[in-house]
Amino acid sequence: MARQKRIPVGDDDFYIDLLLYHRHLQCLVAIDLKLEKFQPSFAGQMQFYLGYLNKFDRLPFENPPIGLILCAEANQAQVELLDLERDNIRVAEYLTKLPPLEVLRERLQRVMIWAKGNKSSKLLR
Fold first, then answer.
1. Left (φ > 0), alpha (ψ -120 to 50) or beta: where does 26 sit?
2. Out of 22, 28, 48, 51, which residue is the most buried by the measure of CB atoms under 10 Å away?
3. Minimal CA–CA distance to 86: which of 57, 118, 50, 39?
4. What is the mean pLDDT of residues 58-78?
5. SS3 state of residue 61
6. Distinct helix (H) and strand (E) counts, the chain
7. End-to-end CA gap in the chain
8. What is the CA radius of gyration of the chain?
9. How many whole angstroms separate alpha carbon 48 and alpha carbon 36?
10. CB atoms < 10 A from the CB of 99, how many?
11. pTM of the complete model
């Protein structure tokens, strides 16, 4: 829907890196791209974005927006302490180079097993 979506609040402007719409989930998806290691402050920024989207951009028939923070590295202990799932926020790491083929195959196999066992997701069957 947008790249660098402008969010005007008071006298300040903020920008969501990417704003998508998920047709099947019927919700906005805000993506924040970070070049560095995950910081707990990123969660507050995403909560702010989601609050804005929920109040000003969400249509009555849509589900609450989802936030995805993509960063170079994430400490799972820090992420878990923030309990971000409660706020519809997820944190993921991006790869700066492809892992060895064996690792890639193993991860893909794990995802496929998870997808087949996930009965709540019609998209993955």
1. left
2. 28
3. 50
4. 92
5. coil
6. 3, 5
7. 27
8. 16
9. 20
10. 11
11. 0.74
